[in-house]
Structures are given as structure tokens and as C-alpha cells.
Write a structure and sequence with these properties.
The protein has 237 residues and is an alpha/beta fold. The protein has a single domain, classed as Rossmann fold (3-Layer(aba) Sandwich). The strands form 2 sheets. A 5-stranded parallel sheet has the order 5-4-1-6-7, with helices on both faces. Strands 2-3 form a two-stranded antiparallel sheet. α7 links the parallel β4 and β5. α1 packs across α4 and α3 packs parallel to α6. It is globular and about 50 Å long. The N and C termini lie far apart (57 Å). The N terminus is likely disordered.
Length: 237
């Protein structure tokens, strides 16, 4: 058994070294500083907006994975076994409930509650993982019964945009039953933020109400150029 565990540990270490983006997220002081900085900026914005608004309902909308919870152990395990992401293994990882908070996340969530706000978790974890996700967030000090969790379903129309709309308007399965103001949106991908024609847009509100955390492990950029205005010249100067 000891030999087996040593072998697995060696495999995970090799996977981390082969996937420098995961090692950077897990081990670098810079990653911790960047995520903490983003959350501190978001907290300052929320507290400024909350002054004099305590009796009016408001919330922050946050993603879960690689925003509040660190899932790099899952990706290291998959890399060690040379396996791609798949839903069964991901659901099994969620069921463990062992993901730790991203640096700065727990303090931000606590600050929101201290300022009189509520937290809305809008995530593409599937609805079938709701209970284990709540348990993980609770263990990490980031869940209360006053929160809302809006997860992915098999209904293609239940997009993150629609979930955010329900939260703001107070209707549907995601809303609190009353309209609320959203003081901040935070996530590790642009899809976690309002679209151009939605609630002030994402770029226009960047650093004011919309906040992006670094995630070099995965995203739409893996499959094509996503940077606005970037011209691809096929190597021709």
C-alpha cells in the first residue's frame, strides 16, 4: 500500500510539472496575490455601493469553480492518469467535497454578508451535484441558508444569462421572489459576467462591478483566439 501511494504521489508530481499552469495555480505566490487582489477590489466596490442601502435587497453573483473553489487536485489526478475531463469523474470529484477555497474567496463572501448582502452562486456544475456542492461550500465557510444556488440543468434555455436575469427580476427557480440589485459579478471566465447588452455589460463595468480571476488551466481560449481586437496573421509579420 505504501509503495502504491508513493507511486501515485510521484505521478501527481509529474503531472503538475508537465502542466505548469496547474503548478502555478497551486504553488505560486503570484496566483494567490492576484486572486486576493481581485476579491479585495470587489469587496471595496460592494461596500461602497452598500452604504445607505442596507434595507434594499442586493446580492453578488459569483461562479464556483476556480472562482470560489480550487479544483486543481481533480485536474492533477486526471493528468496523472492521462485522462480528459468527463462528467462522471467530475461528478465524483464534486461528491468528495474536498475542494479548498481560492485565496481571498472566503474573506470576500464574509465581507458581502457583513455589508448586508446575499450571495448567488451561478455555476455550470450540474443540478445533480447540488447537495454535495452545498456541503463543500459550507465546509469552506461560504454557504448559508439565505443564499441561492443556480446550477446547470438539461434545459438548454437555462443559460447563465437566464439565471442571472431571474436573480435580478426575482422570478423563476433562481430568484428570491423579489427583484434585487447586483452589486458585483465575479468569475474566472467572461461567460460568468453580464453580456454586452445585459446589466451594464462586462467590459464597461470591469473593475467596478465585474471582476475576473486568472485561470490558465482551461477556457474557450483553448479552442481559438478569444482576445478582442487580436489580429491573427498566420505567422506573417
Amino acid at each position: 500500500m505504501i509503495v502504491l501511494l508513493l507511486g501515485l504521489a510521484s505521478g501527481f508530481e509529474t503531472a503538475a510539472n508537465d502542466h505548469l499552469e496547474l503548478k502555478w495555480m497551486r504553488d505560486s505566490e503570484e496566483f494567490s496575490a492576484l486572486t486576493t487582489q481581485v476579491f479585495l477590489q470587489a469587496e471595496q466596490s460592494v461596500r461602497t455601493q452598500a452604504r445607505g442601502r442596507q434595507r434594499q435587497p442586493w446580492t453578488v453573483v459569483v461562479d464556483i469553480d476556480e472562482t470560489l473553489l480550487d479544483n486543481t487536485p481533480y485536474f492533477l489526478e486526471m493528468a496523472a492518469y492521462d485522462r480528459p475531463f468527463d462528467w462522471p469523474s467530475w461528478d465524483a470529484w464534486c461528491a468528495r467535497g474536498t475542494a479548498e477555497p481560492v485565496p481571498g474567496a472566503q474573506a470576500f463572501v464574509s465581507a458581502v454578508r457583513d455589508a448586508g448582502g446575499r450571495v448567488a452562486f451561478v455555476s455550470n456544475r450540474h443540478e445533480r451535484t447540488r447537495d454535495v456542492t452545498v456541503e463543500n461550500l459550507m465546509a469552506a465557510g461560504m454557504w448559508t441558508a439565505e443564499d441561492r444556488m443556480c446550477l446547470l440543468t438539461d434545459d438548454d434555455s437555462y443559460t447563465k444569462r437566464e439565471r442571472r436575469r431571474q436573480l435580478r427580476d426575482g422570478d423563476g427557480t433562481c430568484g428570491w421572489g423579489e427583484p434585487v440589485s447586483v452589486f458585483a459579478y465575479a468569475g474566472d471566465t467572461m461567460a460568468d459576467l453580464p453580456e454586452a447588452d445585459e446589466d451594464g455589460g462586462r467590459w464597461e463595468q470591469l473593475g467596478v462591478r465585474t471582476f475576473v480571476l486568472p485561470n490558465p488551466a482551461y477556457g474557450k481560449w483553448e479552442h481559438g483566439v478569444t482576445r478582442p481586437g487580436l489580429i491573427v496573421t498566420d505567422g506573417v509579420d
